[in-house]
Specification:
alpha/beta, 8-stranded mixed beta sheet
Length: 304
C-alpha cells in the first residue's frame, strides 16, 4: 500500500484518500457522494470504510459502483425483507444472505484483485481493539465491519469475534492516512442524528399478519408509530444509543485526526432499516458534495 502511495505521489501529485463512515441504511448516501465526486473529476486513490461505508467502499474499489447504485435504487421493502436471514442468535439477522449477494454481484473475491487500495475497520469484541482489515476475502472483511451489535450477528475471523467498526472508529480518517493518503476527504453520516425526535411516521406497510412483520415488530422495526408518552421500543433504544455513541466517538476522532474536507449528508430522517429509500439518500449524498465543493476545489487547487 505504501509502495502504491509513493509511486502515485511521485507520478501525479498528492494521494487522495476517501473515508466512508458508518450509518446503516443512511450509508446509501455514500453512493451519491462518490457519483458527485467522480462527476466533479475527483477520483479517490485510496478508499477506507466503516460498516456500510465498508460495503460501498469495497464495491467502488471493485469497479462495481454503478451496478450497486442501480441495485439499491431498485430495492423495495419486500426486497429488503427478502435479504433478512432472521437469526435472533447474536443479532436479529445473521447478515450472510446480503453479504453473499453482494459478493456475487459487487465485490472482488480478494483484496489483491481490487482496482485500488481499500481497507475497512472492525472491532474485536472481547478486547475492544480496533482491527484494520486489508487482506484476504473482501466479503469476509466487509461482513465483519457491518456487524452492528444487536442487529447483525458478529463475525468470526482468524479466531477473533469481530463486530461493527463504528464502535471504535466510525469515520476512518486515521486508516486512510496509514494507507498513505496525503489528503483525506471524509464522509460523516451522523452529523445531524442526535436531538431528532424518536417518533417517526411509518415508512413500511407490510400486512400485520405476515411472519416478517411479526418478527420485525418484535424488534421494534416494523409498521406504526411509537405512541406519545410511551417508552420507545427496544430497537429504538438500542439504535439511538448506538447513534449517540458513534456520533460522540466520530467527533472525538475527527477532532484529533481531522480530515482535509468533511462531507456531511443530512440523512437523520432515515432509519437504520430504510434500505428501500436509496434514491433519497443518494440525492442527499450528491447535495452534500455540492455544499462541500468550495472546500474541495480549494483543497485540490481549483480555486481559479
Amino acid at each position: 500500500m505504501l509502495d502504491f502511495a509513493y509511486a502515485k505521489r511521485n507520478a501525479a501529485g498528492p494521494v487522495v484518500g476517501l473515508a466512508l463512515g458508518g450509518g446503516a441504511a443512511r450509508g446509501w448516501a455514500h453512493l451519491g457522494v462518490l457519483r458527485a465526486l467522480i462527476a466533479d473529476g475527483v477520483q479517490p486513490d485510496i478508499v477506507c470504510g466503516c460498516s456500510i461505508g465498508a460495503l460501498v467502499g469495497a464495491a467502488y474499489a471493485s469497479g462495481k459502483l454503478a451496478e450497486m447504485t442501480a441495485w439499491t435504487e431498485s430495492l423495495d421493502w419486500q426486497g429488503v425483507v427478502a435479504m433478512l436471514d432472521i437469526s435472533l442468535k447474536g443479532g436479529l439477522v445473521r447478515g450472510d444472505r446480503v453479504i453473499q449477494y453482494c459478493a456475487r454481484h459487487f465485490l472482488a473475491d480478494d483484496f489483491s484483485r481490487l482496482a485500488l487500495p481499500f481497507a475497512c475497520v472492525a472491532t474485536e469484541l472481547y478486547s475492544g481493539r480496533e482491527v484494520w482489515l486489508r487482506e484476504g476475502s473482501v466479503a469476509d472483511a466487509v461482513r465483519a465491519s457491518i456487524a452492528l451489535p444487536g442487529l447483525i450477528s458478529p463475525a468470526l475471523r482468524d479466531g477473533r469475534v469481530l463486530v461493527d467498526g463504528g464502535l471504535v472508529n466510525p469515520v476512518p480518517v486515521s486508516l486512510c492516512r496509514a494507507m498513505g493518503a496525503d489528503l483525506v476527504i471524509a464522509v460523516d453520516l451522523g452529523s445531524d442524528l442526535v436531538g431528532r425526535p424518536l417518533k417517526r411516521k411509518a415508512r413500511h406497510e407490510l400486512p400485520a399478519d405476515t411472519w416478517p412483520q411479526k418478527l420485525l415488530a418484535m424488534a421494534g422495526l416494523g409498521n406504526g408509530e411509537e405512541e406519545e408518552g410511551s417508552l420507545p421500543s427496544l430497537a429504538t433504544i438500542l439504535t439511538s444509543s448506538i447513534n449517540i455513541m458513534q456520533m460522540r466517538i466520530a467527533r472525538s476522532r475527527l477532532a484529533g485526526e481531522p480530515a482535509d474536507v468533511l462531507i456531511t449528508p443530512r440523512v437523520a430522517q432515515l432509519g437504520i432499516m430504510d434500505f428501500d429509500h436509496a434514491a433519497e439518500a443518494i440525492a442527499e449524498g450528491e447535495a452534500a458534495v455540492g455544499r462541500a465543493r468550495p472546500a474541495l476545489h480549494h483543497l485540490l487547487g481549483r480555486d481559479a
